[in-house]
Amino acid sequence: MFDISEELKKLPQKPGVYLMKNDKEQIIYVGKAINLKNRVRQYFQSNKNLTAKTRAMVPQIVEFEYIVTDSELEALILECNLIKQHEPYYNIMLKDDKSYPYIKVTIQEEFPRIFITRRLDKDKAKYYGPYTDGLAVKETVETLHKLFPIRKCKKNLPKEIGKERPCLNHHIGQCLAPCSGAISSDDYKVFIKDAMDFLEGKHDGIRKRMEAEMAETAENMDYEKAAALRDKIRAVQSVAQKQKMANMSVGDADVIAMVRAFHECLVQVFFIRDGKMTGRENFTMTASEEQSRSEILTAFVQQFYTGTAYIPREIILQEDLVPEEKELLSEYFTGKREGKVIFTVPIKGEKQKLVELAHKNAMLIFEQFGEKLRREEQRTKGAMEELRQALGIQGTLHRVEAYDISNTQGFESVGSMVVFEDGKSKNSDYRKFRIKTVIGANDYASMKEVITRRLNHALKEKAEGKNSSFTRLPDLIFMDGGKIQVSAAEEVLLSFGMNIPVCGMIKDDKHRTRGLLFDGEEIKIPYTSEGFKLLTRIQDEVHRFAITYHRKLRQEAGLHSVLEDIKGIGEVRRKALMRHFGSIEDIARAEVGDLLEVTEMNIPSAEQVYAFFHQDELQN
């Protein structure tokens, strides 16, 4: 058993990260400290100075771990990574995890390329962005390739010059074919310079040069080329109009403002690059009502910028960050950017107007989607709370797992496990089980095998020190079925010494969700309630997941039992035949000509398949 008082004595007086766990060994809070001994001990002393959130959390702590780091800065980075990995219940959480597109110009190459990327590497290339509108970025890059004959290929030039003939882009006038040595690096880079000017909003020089060239070609009666230049000029004007915006004194910065209602928060970020607003984005966060705006903004800045590829020179904030965190974040961001990063809280002037604009936008978005957020809350966490109350379960209901068995008259029996956390499906934690020890249709024995394997896997990974989805045990288990399925799960849990409540999801005569079987009694839940709707979603999902896996195995078994016996028909052709015909029966009825309609088939293989299914006819 973990003795908290004894373990507190062993804590080192060093910087690091601590992880608080509940009785299910779930990580419920992650924090960092410059002195682990002093910080962790504070949780278990007098609760007079503790916040309401911390007072609610401490009674649930039955164990803690810690990781020592060399500095508080390292602890900051580790803390952020662990919060994102474990999503602890009592941490302020950034719900959105977006990566943004950039336009990359490989100026470090002798013949540079221009393309879209979501990674920011330290490779001496030039990056433009981030942009929030992926479609607009795609259109911009396509326009660039139409305006300037820049290569799209990934060839290693000049190493591969002359090894292959120029591609189609060269023949339609959209590439100067540096791969064939048709243009020097210096001449090619003139077009790259024009493209970069275009991305930076310097359109006038490009447009005037094109207009002069168009006039000259028209005078020489080269009307086809003049028309092509006219179209390019229109494209430049169109993009220039979209990018048009008053120049700001703010060069490279993000502007951050927020609004909140109860525990829901919405943060608005304006991205400003080279004095132009390149986009904006909204982020939702959860935080307890007692936490200050400064704490929430600090958590947002920490989680957002430790995960994003790009950090601007200046971060303009509606309110200042928590003082002890601000200096640390500034140091970390400056090192990551390899240049000074400053935090600004403007009181007046253009920057203050930008913050006000971001706040107004956040208010509008929150008013627009506030009701939607509340409905979503009721549909998910609210529905879980309704189920908890209906069953009379103590504590919180965070994670539930549901199980189902699927087979066809005992053939290819499979089990499925789906996971819902806070009322939302967690697809990454879904698991499939192929029944190994049970012969025939035996739901009781099959379910015992599935639950046993699931729990054995959890114990094994815990013993190995791993922390995967299998090690997170549920607060409640749902079985797709009645007394037989429930008793199977309860018997296994008893043998493992685990006390996890188990419910049966009962269906009516029309195979629709009816209610829950719990402690030998049927629990009626109002059909119109969010709890009942969630229960229906869980039951439908676990059944769908089991059926899908069973059908896959049944199809694979069909492929193995018949098509694998045909000489010359490998895996690729077997799959191609099934995709084309849909069933073994249709393949068996097909003529040689029909079989040749499958791209992967040739005459010998088609004749081989035909002969296999028509052996009796051919012998006669």
Automatic annotation (TrEMBL):
UvrC family homology region profile domain residues: 267-493
Known CDD domains for this protein? GIY-YIG_UvrC_Cho
Keywords in alphabetical order, please. Answer: Cytoplasm, DNA damage, DNA excision, DNA repair, Excision nuclease, SOS response
A GO MF annotation of the entry reads: DNA binding
Q: Where's it found, cell-wise?
A: Cytoplasm
Please, which domain of life does this record's source organism belong to?
Answer: Bacteria
List, alphabetically, the GO terms of the cellular component aspect.
cytoplasm; excinuclease repair complex
Q: Name one GO biological process term.
A: SOS response
User: Residue limits of the UVR domain?
Assistant: 204-239
Q: Which residues form the GIY-YIG domain?
A: 13-92
- Main subcellular localization, coarse class? cytoplasm
Q: Which Pfam families match?
A: GIY-YIG, HHH_5, UVR, UvrC_RNaseH, UvrC_RNaseH_dom
Listed under subunit, the entry gives: Interacts with UvrB in an incision complex.
Task: Give the protein's biological function.
Answer: The UvrABC repair system catalyzes the recognition and processing of DNA lesions. UvrC both incises the 5' and 3' sides of the lesion. The N-terminal half is responsible for the 3' incision and the C-terminal half is responsible for the 5' incision.
Family, according to the entry, reads as follows: Belongs to the UvrC family.
> Which HAMAP family does the annotation name?
UvrC
- This chain's protein is named UvrABC system protein C
What organism is recorded for this protein? Answer: Anaerotignum propionicum DSM 1682
